[in-house]
Design goal:
heterotrimer; A alpha/beta; B alpha/beta; C mainly alpha; A: alpha/beta; D-Maltodextrin-Binding Protein, domain 2; 2 domains; 10-stranded mixed beta sheet; 3-stranded antiparallel beta sheet; 13 strands; B: alpha/beta; Rossmann fold; 6-stranded mixed beta sheet; 4-stranded antiparallel beta sheet; globular
Chain lengths: 271, 251, 216
């Protein structure tokens, strides 16, 4: 019996040692890898964020951001990879190297810069809107006093409601935080809430593809989308930005933009 | 007058024909012992008499009222079985006391909550019974706190608390250590002295001989011999019983 | 945000966490018994249906059942999603836990020696009386340890109500964690669950002790 116990212990220790050694080796590799030697690039996306990033009909991730990133990788000769993050954990997942950037209709927040993340130059002008049902009588945020509003956890919309727009938020009945926009929209469609507070392009995309919804146009303050990198990856950010410039120059970018007419008006990077 | 009567009882478990036409009766005040090798059908007979098993055919009657009747070759039981159940009591080999009830509650619960008798009256009766059995100090104890012999005595008084006209015992000492069987047998002897009607399935030959008015020897699902103990034990006629007694004495 | 305000804010969601917990127990404990008895029914249709329901509820994730109960009626029949999320959440939790409780009850009922039924029958107890007076109290005693396990799991599972946007403690914790870019709310949540479960374990131990006046 003792022998067996000893053997099992030895095996466990061996496994742990090997495992740790393996981890160590991996970390070293990444640290030693200079940007020039990069062979692959993993973008972190919210997989339920059309039209910027979502699961396409063919079962592959697609969307405006995904296509641009893919073009960037093609241009730089990197292997293109996608990693679906948990949106309210996105920065933690970025730090733990599950992805090399967060690039998915991400609103640039001052708190990100303060925390040391490298943020690319903005590429999209965004605003928050309220999405309501077409047959409802709501015409402005004031009409929603005492009504229930859904917002996605971890989005700039949620940050706004608990920050700059907290006075407005207080007039709402309940603020329901859902863990994806799909949930938010289901709540609205199923009459569980009266409105969804959401990024304009996502709302526009939803209205375009689903009947019975409309957008309340109201200025809740402007914000912009950018790409987030880890604090030490300024070089990587620069290379990606340069590559974007290059694909703008060679027309690839414009070809992608053509596929997304709804958002074209708010794009900042054009020839 | 017979308290219980069985005529031509047949019982099979699947293809296993266990009781092959058993007939016997028990008169008031009579003590009947049923003996025989294991697998002879003794316990099944008792379980049929107490409705724990249903018979395939034959007539069971208590107090001259039929419990079963033959309808188109099928054995049909009376609807009011519970009225008949109050006529008899059964003491199990494994006691089957209710472990979550105290000794007193084990005895009182059925008379009070099933027969709706007055609680104080039942309590007095039960305490008297316990007193008689020398178990008065165990009234509030739980079965797990008692020895096997004490548990079996409690299960006897639990049956007596229902004031049965006849008491069945299914190998009441088989689950006990040899040194504990004495106290249980003593109680049964005491009951016999008080003219309690009893049917006892047992392996204790000396006891059966001493206590019984009638001994039934069963083998292979039939009654091979029955009669007064002196007759059955002293003047054994059948080969099967002779052999059984020889084996028994050798042990 | 100080640790204190964080904890207070999360405690406001604790009320909803407790509501899920207690209401689920209230409904799932008796419902589980009904399912267990159905499962033990001599009618093949009833016992077959019961074991099928149990296998589906135990064989699919609670999270899926939450979504199905909350949004299913809307997608299938166009019935509005309930504004009071507590209702679908408690319904989903109750049926899921009833399935687990049913299996525990069943194992307890099956472990009862047949002699208990026979003794009761000979003494004239009806089937219903036998069950409630003789069998059930002993079954409870036998299954308490596995019940405790299941109830402790329930405390932790309440956090899954987050899937259908029910604003219980863990959801609020995630909101704070997100707006404050802080890990602390998760630590606070962990402490809440731990303390809750410590209380549950304490109470269950007391109950077990209170019932251990007899040995089986």
């Amino acid at each position: 019996m003792k022998k067996i116990t000893a053997l099992v212990l030895a095996l466990i220790i061996a496994a742990l040692t090997l495992g740790l050694a393996g981890c160590g080796a991996k970390t070293d590799d990444t640290a030693n890898e200079t940007e020039a030697e990069r062979t692959s690039f993993t973008m972190g996306i919210d997989p339920e964020y059309p039209p910027f990033s979502y699961l396409g009909d063919d079962g592959e991730y697609t969307g405006f951001d995904v296509e641009v990133c893919k073009a960037v990788c093609d241009y730089l000769g990197w292997e293109f990879k996608v990693f679906a993050v948990n949106w309210d954990e996105k920065l933690v997942q970025l730090d733990s190297e599950e992805c090399d950037c967060v690039w998915s209709g991400m609103t640039i927040l001052d708190s990100m810069k303060d925390a040391g993340y490298i943020i690319s130059r903005p590429y999209f002008d965004n605003e928050q809107v309220l999405l309501v049902k077409d047959d409802s009588e709501y015409k402005s945020s004031a009409d929603l006093a005492g009504k229930d509003v859904a917002v996605q956890l971890g989005t700039s919309g949620e940050a706004l409601l608990s920050g700059d727009l907290s006075d407005l938020a207080k007039t709402f009945g309940n603020i329901v935080t859902a863990n994806s926009f799909t949930s938010c929209f289901t709540e609205l469609a199923g009459n569980a809430v009266d409105a969804v507070f959401v990024d304009a392009p996502v709302a526009q995309d939803y209205v375009a593809n689903n009947e019975g919804f409309r957008i309340i146009d109201e200025d809740f303050g402007a914000e912009q989308y950018g790409i987030a990198f880890r604090s030490g990856d300024a070089d990587l950010c620069a290379r990606v930005e340069a590559a974007i410039d290059a694909i703008i120059e060679n027309g690839t970018y414009a070809a992608i933009v053509e596929k997304y007419p709804d958002i074209a008006g708010n794009l900042l990077l054009t020839k | 007058m017979s308290i219980m009567k069985m005529s031509d009882i047949q019982k099979s478990f699947g293809s296993n024909h266990v009781l092959k036409g058993i007939s016997f009766s028990v008169d008031k005040g009579e003590v009947v012992s049923i003996i025989g090798p294991s697998g002879s059908g003794k316990s099944t007979l008792l379980r049929c008499a107490t409705f724990l098993e249903t018979i395939d055919s034959g007539i069971i009657s208590y107090d001259d009222k039929d419990v079963t009747k033959n309808v188109n070759g099928k054995c049909v039981y009376a609807k009011n079985l519970n009225d008949f159940r109050h006529i008899f009591g059964l003491v199990f080999q494994n006691f089957n006391l209710f472990p979550h009830y105290s000794v007193l509650k084990n005895m009182m619960d059925a008379p009070v909550s099933i027969m709706k008798r007055d609680k104080r009256e039942v309590r007095e009766e039960c305490m008297m019974l316990l007193e008689k059995m020398g178990l008065a100090d165990k009234a509030d104890a739980y079965p797990c706190e008692l020895s096997g012999g004490q548990q079996q005595r409690v299960s006897i008084v639990r049956a007596l608390a229902m004031n049965p006209e006849i008491l069945f015992f299914d190998e009441p000492t088989s689950a006990l250590d040899p040194e504990l069987t004495g106290e249980v047998l003593k109680v049964i002897k005491q009951l016999a002295k008080e003219k309690m009607t009893m049917v006892i399935v047992t392996h204790e030959m000396a006891f059966a001989r001493a206590v019984s008015d009638k001994v039934i020897f069963m083998s292979g699902g039939v009654i091979v011999e029955q009669g007064a103990p002196e007759e059955v034990f002293g003047n054994t006629r059948s080969e099967r019983m002779k052999q059984f007694l020889q084996n028994y004495n050798r042990d | 945000m100080t640790l204190m305000t964080m904890a207070l804010k999360m405690a406001s969601g604790l009320e909803k966490t407790c509501a899920i917990f207690f209401l689920t127990l209230l409904f799932a404990l008796p419902l589980g018994m009904v399912v267990a008895l159905m499962r033990g029914s001599k009618y093949k249709v009833i016992s077959g249906a019961a074991s099928f329901i149990i296998s589906v509820l135990r064989g699919t994730p609670l999270m899926l059942q939450l979504i199905a109960v909350t949004y299913g009626p809307y997608y299938l029949f166009g019935i509005s999603v309930s504004r009071n999320k507590l209702i679908p959440v408690v319904v989903a939790f109750s049926i899921n836990y009833a399935a687990y409780f049913a299996e525990i009850y069943r194992s307890g009922i099956e472990s009862m020696p047949v002699g208990q039924y026979e003794a009761a029958q000979v003494l004239g107890y009806s089937r219903v009386q036998t069950f409630f007076k003789i069998i059930f109290p002993q079954v409870i005693r036998r299954i308490l340890p596995s019940m405790t396990n299941e109830i402790v799991t329930l405390v932790k599972d309440t956090s899954m109500a987050f899937t259908v946007s029910y604003q219980e403690m863990f959801t609020i914790g995630k909101q704070i964690a997100n707006s404050e870019t802080s890990f602390i709310p998760f630590v606070v949540a962990g402490v809440f669950y731990y303390v809750f479960n410590a209380a549950v374990s304490f109470i269950m131990r007391r109950v077990e002790k209170a019932m251990s006046y007899y040995k089986i």
